[in-house]
Prior knowledge:
By secondary structure, the protein is α+β, with helices and mostly antiparallel strands. It is built from 10 helices and 38 strands. It folds into 2 domains: 24-277, Neuraminidase (6 Propeller), CATH 2.120.10.30; 374-612, Alpha/Beta hydrolase fold, catalytic domain (Rossmann fold, 3-Layer(aba) Sandwich).
Amino acid sequence: MTLTAPYGAWTSPISPAMLTQAGVGFTDVSADGADVYWVESRPSEAGRSVIVRRTPEGNVEDVSPAGFNSRTRAHEYGGGAYAVRDGIVVSSSFSDQRVYRLGADEPYPITPEPDVPAGDRYADLLLHRELVICIREHHIPNGEATTELVVLPIDGSAPPRAIAGGHDFLSSPRVSPNGTHLAWLTWDHPQMPWDGTELWVADFAADGTVGGATRVAGGPDESIIQPEWSPDGRLHFISDRTGWWNLYRLEESGTITAVCPMDAEFGAPQWQFGYRHYAFLSDTGIVAIYEEDGRSRVGVLDDGALSDVHGGRDVISSTVAVAAGRVWTVAAGDTEPAAVVGIDPATGEELVVRSSLSVDIDRRYVSRPQAITFPTTGGAIAHAYYYPPVNPDFAAPEGELPPLVVWSHGGPTGATSPGLSLGRQFWTSRGFALVDVNYRGSAGYGRAYRNALRGEWGIIDTDDCIAAARYLADQGLVDPDRMAIRGGSAGGYTTLCALTFHDTFATGTSYFGVTDIAALAADTHKFESRYLDSMIGPYPAMADRYRERSPVHHTERLSKPMLILQGLDDKVVLPDQAEMMVEALDRKGIPHAYLAFEGEGHGFRKAENIERSAEAELSFYGWVFGFAPAGEIRPVEIHNAEPRQDR
């Protein structure tokens, strides 16, 4: 029997607690012979990152011992925190950032205790013979961290020794199969790795000594990612020199050959270390993840010919490895959760090893994404995924249109993808419409689309989120008077800009969002410390522009209620950013709620905080839009919440 209830008040099978049961994240898939390894981020263990191994016999076991958090803080976003070879595993430890060797006994450190606690951070770990090669980010009091490529013995018998430096950033060390050459990437302020990087190759001795370093590709306007040596010793890499991240090969003559030129993205922004977008099946065969028309695919390249591997999931992460005749990656689908899967490259048959979802969801309650392209400011177009409300148990009163939640992703040089997410279905199964926007500046649509945000951050990303909402309202799909916007980090900034400088949305939620971009430019970590040079302009030379686009300096224009959530250990967007906005809302008497979480950084990892955030957001929208959420939803305390005449 179908019940009639207002949109937003529908009873959903997806509870806030279930979001944490489905919150296991998978990254850093790698292979060691026939064994497959990956990292799991587990909200139920306070966000601990755990290295997991699958043997050829199908046994799955934790490699990280109980209590050990295999995570690096290099660049604050981490990645590439472990390496494995011949069963030997080394890993960074989140607690002190030292590198440990893991095994049957207790983990033991192979890097020394730094002078500054957690001051030496290691990432992009690589094992070669008896050596560990990796990136070291060295932090000093009251100064910018330095980054070097270092080498150390695998038993920790000698301290790390720097073998390459001289640049603000380094990444991706790769040793040739015969052990005689080393490749790596560099870039310098104010470039980000998706703006411009350089690829270097040097002679490499058995003791780790490097000599004769030569730049072979790249520059300030060419983004190169993931150098990789083929089994027969030829250097490959991904470059966006044509406007699309495509795969290239360095020939013995020094010329560079495109392996499979096409208007598609074979790479993604390197926000973290350790991304692997392709791997070798043989001397000439390559398996690659690529994105075209907003969908990612697994393809096999052989002698320049590309053939798709048709598995059951079509949203593929930036991690791939080859082991035991299968392609291993993390994949999701419209109705399938993210999972570690092994794909037969010949048949597309999938072997699902581990799913991010530990509960079963009736697919009748799942809203399937609809890719939309819509007009926006300046005669441009933008992209998004629209999710209509879906719940077979309920119907809305006749004539009622659903409220809309606009999602603005972080980065801003990032992207959203349409894989099954209980975080989205939490809303659509309650009667919300949802649109997840890939505004101009998002990855996945080529360099020109990515660069459209240069100098325009806070303007066209906001315009595109507004345009998406208005497009859906004009189509008669959503209630134009009940539209909310929400986002985290850069998406939080877009949210705050929309609520401060525009009147489209009735409310919004900022997760660790930027309120004062000048404060962000003056006080953030090294990796992003010059990011805003391209997104806004150089600071302080363009201080007026920074003030002009900072919501906290224009609170006289605020009138809409908002919810603000913040981790108190955030080193990317500091807590005072949130607190400045809360103070402004207090001064103006605007209804708002503020939740601050101890022990959370940039992105919430703990189960109880993920659950509380979802409850708070639903409760807040219920108050704003005038409906009572179904189920046992803990209300959020709303300041300045006097009774309103329009409710």
